[in-house]
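call fold(seq) -> C-alpha cells
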Amino acid sequence: MRFATPVTLLAAISGTCAMVIQRDNPLAKCINSVTSSLNKLDVATKSFNGDIQPVVEAADNVIATIQHGQMVTDSTPSISLFSAAALLQPVQILDNRAKVLFVDVKGRVLDIQKAKKCDVFRAKLSTLNFVGHKLIDTILNKISSGFARNIARPFTDDIKGLLAKSLDLFERARCIDAY
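ret:
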C-alpha cells in the first residue's frame, strides 16, 4: 500500500505535466524516436524472408537513433522529478514495443538459422545491447530524484533484460548458420 501512493502520485504528476513537457522535452523525443525505430525493425523482422538487408538497415537505424539519443542525453542537465514524470509514458510505450519486438525476433530464430544469418543478427544485437545499456544507464544516472529513479528502474531493467534475452537467442551454441 505504501508503494501504491507514490506511484499514484507520480502518475498524477505525469498525467498533468506530460502534455505540456513531452512536446518540449528532448529526452521524451529521443525515447519516442527509439520506439519508432523499433517499430520499423519489428516490421523488417516480421517480413524477413532470407534477405537480411532490410533488417540490417532497420537495426542500423535503431542504433543510430540510440546514439543520437545518447548525444542528447549527454548534453542534458540533470532530470528533475517533474521532468522524469514526463518520461514515464514514453518509457512505458518503449518497454511494450521492446517486448513485442522480442517475441517477433524469437519467433524468427529458425528462419534466421535457415538463411544462415545468425552471425549478422548476433553482431547487430550485440551493438544494440551495448548502446542501449549505455543510454539507459545515462538517463537513469541523470535523474536527480531517487524516487523517480526507483519508479523508472523496473521499466529500464525490463528493457535491459529483453536485450540480454535477445542476445541469448543468437549465442553461438543456439543459433548456428550451418543448418
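Residues 1-23 have pLDDT under 50 and may be disordered.
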